[in-house]
Amino acid sequence: MPILEPVCEAKVPPSHGDASPAPQTCLVTGSLLPWTGGPLRSTGAFQQALDARLVSFLERRDVPHHALALPQGRLALVTCRRVPGARHFLVPDFRSLEAARRVVESSDLVSCHSFYTFHPPWVHSVCRRNGLPYWIVPHGILDPYVARRNPAVKRLFMTMVGRACLANAAATVFSSRNERDKALQTARIANPVVIPWPVEIPPDFDRDAARSTLRTRLGIPPDADLLLFLGRLHPMKRPLETIRMFAEAMDRRWHMLLVGHPDGVSAEDCRRVAESCGVGGRVHVVPGVDAAAVQGIVQGCDLFISCSWRENFNNAAAECLANGIPILLSPGNDLLADIGPSPAVGALSDDPSAAMASLKDWGSMAAAERLDRGRTGRDWAAANLSFDIFRSRLLALRSQTLSAHG
Known about the structure:
The protein is α/β, with parallel strands linked by helices. It contains 15 helices and 14 strands. The protein has an eight-stranded mixed β-sheet with strand order 4-3-2-1-5-6-7-8, with helices on both faces. Residues about 1-20 have low confidence and may be disordered.
């Protein structure tokens, strides 16, 4: 299986003691709320890897829910009001914006997360005025699919400020090759860089104990096999279609667990579809779960599935690989191409009949074979997705950026 291409060869410069203070990176983001899932985890990984300060733009009502706490002096919250009719566009309170500007201006490098919102043009303006380098980290927002939603607004944004933001960025950081390649269809990007998001690579664990604990919690037979859907309950991720596939393809020893924050699809919607398909007693829905508890759930499952129309990375799939759980991915999962052919990964067709046939094949596979395939996936994740590898790539890119900026 191919290892992802090296991002850059530059080394982090050696410390010169008190005479040369370490670079101070600042992250500028939108809302970081507990239910934002993958972007929250990946942005948190950036903050930790770069030991960065943080500026976060969010609605005033969401301030109590801000989910990435930092010590005093390292966090600036910019309170905003929402623009009517523009779901993601927030207008900041200018008093809190002034405090955020001071944080950015005292930095050596700014990492700006997301796009098509107020804060990337603001970062571009402040950095250009102060001669600071910055990165854009779009988190999938430059996908052509996104550009096709409210296209007139997106074209106006790109014409007025978006193209300049991308053209003047020191780098635009993508989580996968496919995310990068699709973004290049939408915009001209000066320095696209691929750095896959990290996941925790756990030490060896007692899989039998994890399976037993989860089955006891769900009230299902101890010998039941468990198919996992992990992610927001959103139409794009197709939870209801996945339930129908499960009902059609898997025999009675299999149960299905859906874990995720309701976002356009409710837990009751899932239960209603399961009942209508005759699998109500074998489909279990956990509408939300603390991030710390996710790993225990993953380790107790046997197979992960994502039939999503679009996933620029899919943290849940990567986390399952890291825990030795084989994964089934639709073509919309960009991670599929980066992993390459692997015994740990099943590629689901967009054709429903072919996808159900694949799911049935994996469901009828001997448990020992699935375990072997899962170990292969775990080895790949350890070699490509560990936090140490992620941090070394980011620090090398930071070194390159600062050296080039000179």
